[in-house]
Amino acid sequence: MSAALYRRSNASDAETLFELTAKSVSELSPAFYSAEVVETWMAGRSPETYRDDCANEAVTIAEINDKPAGFSHAVPGEVVRLFVDVKYTGFGIGAELMRRALRDALPTGSGLVKIDATLNAAPFYRKWGFTEVGRSVFPNRGPKLPVIDTIVVEQIFD
Ligand SMILES: CC(C)(COP(=O)(O)OP(=O)(O)OC[C@H]1O[C@@H](n2cnc3c(N)ncnc32)[C@H](O)[C@@H]1OP(=O)(O)O)[C@@H](O)C(=O)NCCC(=O)NCCS
């Protein structure tokens, strides 16, 4: 496999984020969430959900042979999203996306970083030294959709 290349997003990456997220959810989440949650996970989302963040170059995209393989998005104090295409997991792409996300999460090089992690991703973040501080649910789901349980993890970087 060719080495992954990493670059900042632009507006046209919104479809990629939507598709990679939907694919990851359908392939990795069924072992951790009910069928009802998995089936409705992307309800109310579209590429537009991700457009502004992509246009603002806030997202890091990993590519292999010019094809998207994963992405991460962080803001100061929080890693917001990190997904790797299932067919490219296990090759270190998640680790490199995490390193880059932490740079964005820690603009001064130190401080608290929080992640609202899916149940399937929480062990990955524990490996990075994050510890569970509570349970939560993803916001903005509305009353008609089943909640998506998450594990809130945090770490203080000196
Ligand atoms: C978790 C995820 C990012 C890992 O990506 P990846 O490219 O396979 O990770 P890497 O190959 O870089 O692995 C880095 C290390 O983490 C470990 N790791 C990877 N996935 C793991 C998991 N689910 N649980 C525990 N450890 C994991 C690897 O074994 C590796 O360890 P090593 O350094 O000792 O070899 C990827 O599986 C994914 O996108 N999952 C869905 C993410 C998700 O739900 N995100 C939403 C919440 S923000």
The first-level CATH class name: Alpha Beta
The beta-strand count equals 7
Order of helices and strands: EHHHEEEHEHEE
Q: In this structure, how is the largest beta sheet organized?
A: 7 strands, mixed
- Our Rg estimate from Cα atoms comes to 15 Å
Task: List the keywords.
158 residues; alpha+beta; Aminopeptidase; binds coenzyme A
Structure description:
- With 158 residues, the chain is of the alpha+beta class.
- The protein has a single domain (5-157), classed as Gcn5-related N-acetyltransferase (GNAT) (Aminopeptidase, 3-Layer(aba) Sandwich).
- It is 30% helix and 32% strand.
- It is built from five helices and seven strands; from the N terminus they run βαααβββαβαββ.
- It has helices spanning 14-28, 35-40, 48-55, 93-105, 122-127; strands at 5-8, 59-64, 67-75, 78-84, 111-118, 131-137, 149-157.
- The chain has a seven-stranded mixed beta sheet, sandwiched between helices.
- It is globular, with a radius of gyration of 15 Å.
- It starts with a strand and ends with a strand.
- The model has no long low-confidence stretch (mean pLDDT 96).
- Coenzyme A (COA) binds next to α1, β4, α4, β5 and α5.
- Residues 24, 28, 81-84, 89-95, 117-118, 120-121, 123-124, 127 line the site of coenzyme A.
